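[audit] Reproducing an earlier prediction to check determinism. Same input, same settings, fresh worker. If the tokens differ from the archived copy the diff job will pick it up downstream; this log only records the rerun itself.
[audit] input (270 residues):
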Amino acid sequence: MITSDHGHNAKQSAQIAATAISEQTGIAQHDVALVLGSGWAAACDQIGETAWEADTTALPFFAPSTVPGHGGLVRSVRRGEQNVLLFMGRTHLYEGHGVDAVAHPVRTAAATGCQTIIFTNGAGSLNPDWSPGTPVLISDHINFTATSPLPGASFVDLTDLYSTRLRRACKDINPALPEGVYIQFRGPQYETPAEIRMARSIGADLVGMSTAIEAIAAREAGMEILGISLVTNFAAGMTGDALNHDEVLANGAASAQQLGRLLAKVLDRI
């Protein structure tokens, strides 16, 4: 329901959407938000008992999902004592709805009371040791989109953006989990081999078209952030093979059960 939000700023729009979630779920406050990226959908059933589910477009100011592999659903899931707000799919910058639409689910989650948010995505690997199916903790990011979700002179510190505490919790669960720097390009075209060489030279280990903008919005909202990439393909020029979206989704689906178990254990430590 991306009705016009003239007269509302981004935070007011998020509050209106959060109120709608509260009214529809009968839950006054959610605790943790989880955003599932490309190929992660099957992981959601590992998280807990679904108390409520709706199309995101049934909520105020959410853009319709236009990307294969992104379901456009939101769930309220009960896990232990936690109410988890689960977004199955996301809005990408390349879909043309603007940066506020990309950040709107994040701001809505914060307005429902979420103190913590976990971002997942499907990513291209710039590290030859990380083959498709490898989960990687995001330690930092490079925002290569030439835009920001922050309005005006909003000076937000991004030091330790991806929580050291939550990454340590993940390492306690699986000490073999690698860490890397994620770079967000605008898309929707995949990167050229030259762009990937540039990304490697400036310190990127993973590449994708999401997450960085959302994480900035989450930091502004005061949430603690965890990011996990699932390697779905080697980045352009790494193997000489062509890239395609079907491969990304297939590799994501193959790992979804394992990733769901990891996410469930992480939630127990938050």
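[audit] rerun output stored. Observation attached for the diff report: Residues 46 and 202 are 36 Å apart (CA to CA).
[audit] end
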